[in-house]
Amino acid sequence: MKRSVIETALGGLVILVALSFLAFSVNTAQVGKVSGYELNARFSGIGGLAVGDDVLISGVKVGSIVAVTLDPETFLANVRMSIENHVKLPADTAALISSESLLGGRYLALEPGAEEDVLKPGSMIEYTQAPQNLEQLLGQFIFSMQGDKDKQPSAGESAADAHP
Questions:
Q1: C-alpha span between 98 and 65 (Å, rounded)
Q2: Which backbone phi and psi does 100 adopt, to 5 degrees?
Q3: Alpha helix ranges (H) inside the chain
C-alpha cells in the first residue's frame, strides 16, 4: 500500500514537471514573435531563409519572417516580414539575405536608405539582394587561383621569357 502511494505521488510529480515545461515552452515561443506591420520583398533566391527567421538592422532584431512563397508568374520568391511598429523604414530601404556564419542559419538584413518617405504597411521593398552561393564563390576562387598558376613562369623560364 505504501509503495502504491509513493508511485502515485512520483507519477503526479512527473506530470506536473512536464506540464510546467510545456507552459514555459509556449510562453517562450510567444516572446520571440513580433507584432507590427508587414512588408514584402522579392528575391531571385532565398538560400534557406525560412519562416521565423530574424529581420535585422545593424545586427539588432526588428522583426521576423512571416511567410515565404513563390510567385507563379515571375518565379521569384516572395518574402513577407513583420516589422516592429516603432521602426519606420525609408522608402529606399534595401533587403539582403545574409548568413550568421558559414554553418549558421540565414537572416534578412535591412539597410535603411536616405529618403524622407517611409514604407507603408504592405509595401514592397524594391531593392533586394539574394544570398551569395558559397559553392559558386569557392569555385570562382579555385579557378582564379588555377589561372594565376598558368601565368607564372615555370622553373626553367625567367620572368622575361614568360611575358613577351
A1: 13
A2: -70, -35
A3: 2-31, 134-151, 159-162
Residue with cell 536608405: 113
Kindly state the cell numbers that stand for 151.
Answer: 601565368
131, burial (CB in 10 Å: exposed 0-12, middle 13-18, buried 19+): middle
In angstroms, what CA-CA distances link 159 with 128, 152, 153? 46, 8, 6
Spatial strand order of the sheet with 127-129 comes to 124-125, 36-43, 77-84, 60-70, 54-57, 106-111, 94-99, 127-129
Query: How many helices and strands, by DSSP H and E, does the chain display?
Result: 3, 8
The model's pTM: 0.64
Contact 114, 95 (CB under 8 A): no
75 in Cβ contact with 130 (< 8 Å): no
Which band of pLDDT confidence, cut at 50, 70 and 90, is reported for residue 162?
very low
φ/ψ (deg, to 5) at 44: -75, -20
Cell of 157: 623560364
The DSSP bridge partners found for residue 37 are 83
pLDDT in tens, 80-128: 999 999 999 999 999 999 888 767 788 999 999 999 999 999 999 999 9
